[in-house]
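Internal ticket - ligand job 135, zinc ion:
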Amino acid sequence: MSCMSYGYIIVKDNAKWRREHIVIMEHSIGRKLNKNEIVHHINGNKTDNRIVNLQLMTKGEHITLHNFAREYKHKADDETIQNLYAEEYSGRQIASILKIGKSTVLNCIQRLGVSRNNFGIRNENGKFAERKAVI
Ligand SMILES: [Zn+2]
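stdout (structure tokens):
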């Protein structure tokens, strides 16, 4: 069973919703990702989770590769913040990428109830069931 969340395919893995590309990479390398690692989609298609399209890199390398600072200039809207948070960038990193204050990022995440640990699981108000903003 799979669903979509923030443009990514999510799957049930040990009873938890997780992004499929991360599960596939973890199976491939035989360990969990560490906190500083991210799985990049080489051809830019976030739903193409073939292992040949996935590249393991550090979050720092990923920010440089995408040139997020340029890509997201003047786009510090809720959706962009949600997407970056879902990609597991810290509040500090998101603030730096978007050139906005960390409190703006924190407010957005808390207001929307975004959770990294509850992808796709929303309550009746359309918010994520569990609030867990870690900044
Ligand atoms: Zn990427």
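Auto-summary: Residues 40-41, 62, 66 surround zinc ion (CB under 6 Å). The chain has two domains: 1-59, 67-135.
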